[in-house]
Specification:
Structural class: alpha/beta
Number of helices: 9
Number of strands: 10
Distance between the termini: 29 Å
Strand content: 15-25%
CATH topology: 2-enoyl-CoA Hydratase, Chain A, domain 1
Number of domains: 1
Low-confidence stretches: none
CATH superfamily: 2-enoyl-CoA Hydratase, Chain A, domain 1
Helix content: 40-55%
Mean pLDDT: 96
Length: about 230
């Protein structure tokens, strides 16, 4: 099995880096490695920084996956988003550039999101490429995007630049590309000072409806629903 995601722990901050050498396609293997690193971070009682390779967080699910492998891949991606949204310690996403489709949903699943300014693309392009948004994805978008952008992004597949993506709710902060990871780690260090029990309990209350929607979406996938 190739290494598609790495784990580094330093001073209570675990950095999970996705890098497939291309666009960080979220295959079942990639998602599985990232999820395993979240398990390790929880065992280490660490705040997490999730990041990607230069210019790309992720371009979304691996479209090269054979049709029979799609349900497992979709369910794995949904579970990773659920894991991030309910993770007992803060999760910071360092978006080095592009975040498309499921890559954007992982971005939406962080507690604090730092993005790179510049000519980058962020958005939910599913309908533009002929895919219907899964129910789990709709639950995430509805929870994190501002109301007008939620509707527009979901039903038109519009792709946004970083500054507009911040206004839409994909990002909390936009910085120079070379400063993304440093800024994200600084945010993670600051967030390490919150009361973790209160953080974890409040996170579950605030996101109760969204998490229920994600779990319903996973159930639909596992039940083999034609519209997942």
């Amino acid at each position: 099995m190739s290494t598609l995601a790495t784990y580094d722990l330093a001073e209570g901050v675990a950095t999970i880096t996705m890098d497939d050498g291309k666009v960080n396609a979220l295959s079942a293997e990639m998602v599985g490695q990232v999820a395993a690193h979240f398990d390790q971070a929880e065992a280490d009682e660490a705040v997490v920084v999730l990041t990607g390779r230069k210019r790309t967080l992720s371009a979304g699910f691996d479209l090269r996956t054979e049709p029979e492998g799609w349900p497992a891949m979709l369910a794995a991606g949904a579970r990773l988003a659920e894991r991030m949204l309910s993770f007992p310690r803060p999760v910071v996403v360092a978006c080095n550039g592009n975040a498309i489709a499921m890559g954007a949903f992982l971005l939406l699943s962080g507690d604090y999101r730092v993005g790179a300014g510049g000519d980058f693309k962020i958005g939910l392009n599913e309908v533009a490429i002929g895919l219907t948004l899964p129910f789990f994805a709709i639950a995430i978008a509805q929870h994190r995007l501002t109301r007008p952008y939620y509707d527009r992004c979901a039903v038109t597949g519009v792709i946004l630049g970083p500054d507009e993506a911040q206004r839409a709710g994909f990002l909390d902060e936009v910085v120079e590309p070379d400063d993304v990871l440093t800024t994200a780690r600084a945010a993670a260090t600051q967030l390490a000072g919150v009361n973790m029990a209160a953080h974890a309990a409040t996170k579950l209350r605030v996101r109760e409806q969204a998490l229920a929607g994600i779990r319903d979406g996973i159930a639909r996938i596992e039940a083999g629903a034609s519209e997942v």
